[in-house]
Write a structure and sequence with these properties.
- By secondary structure, this protein is of the alpha/beta class.
- The chain has a single domain, classed as Rossmann fold (3-Layer(aba) Sandwich), CATH 3.40.50.
- The protein has four helices and six strands; from the N terminus they run ββαβααββαβ.
- It has helices at 18-21, 33-36, 40-46, 81-89, and strands spanning 4-5, 13-14, 27-31, 51-55, 72-78, 101-107.
- The strands form two sheets. The protein has a four-stranded mixed beta sheet. Strands 1-2 form a two-stranded parallel sheet.
- The radius of gyration is 15 Å and the shape is globular.
- The two termini are 27 Å apart.
- It holds the Pfam family DUF364.
Length: 109
């Protein structure tokens, strides 16, 4: 397994390594932040030989991403906006401790 990072530390690989690593990988877990930094489309293309999972609370739960090579979208759904706002304003920093959200996965048909 490999961990690719924009600013690698320790055993992490620089993002440039994605050109070699992703085409050979069976499973690629890609943070939804890649959408924000404009690298998602390329990462999905490079990982097309494997299963591409877009993961994180900022994952858009839109089937449109399946057209670009995503196989699984793993994000969250807010079911209680007051609870999530309260958690955040009370300083909850660990994602799994936030109230008012539930994990959601969408799978490509």
């Amino acid at each position: 397994s490999y961990l690719l990072e924009i600013d690698p530390v320790g055993n992490e690989l620089p993002m440039i390594a994605c050109e070699d690593v992703l085409p050979k990988s069976d499973i690629n877990i890609i943070t939804a932040t890649a959408l924000i930094n404009h690298s998602l489309q390329r990462l999905l293309e490079l990982g097309s030989n494997g299963i591409n999972i877009v993961l994180g609370p900022s994952t858009p739960l839109s089937p449109v991403l399946f057209d670009f090579g995503a196989d699984i979208l793993a994000g969250v759904k807010v079911y209680n906006k007051n609870a999530i706002v309260k958690s955040i304003t009370q300083g909850v920093k660990k994602f799994k401790l936030l109230n008012g959200i539930e994990p959601v996965c969408l799978y490509k048909k």
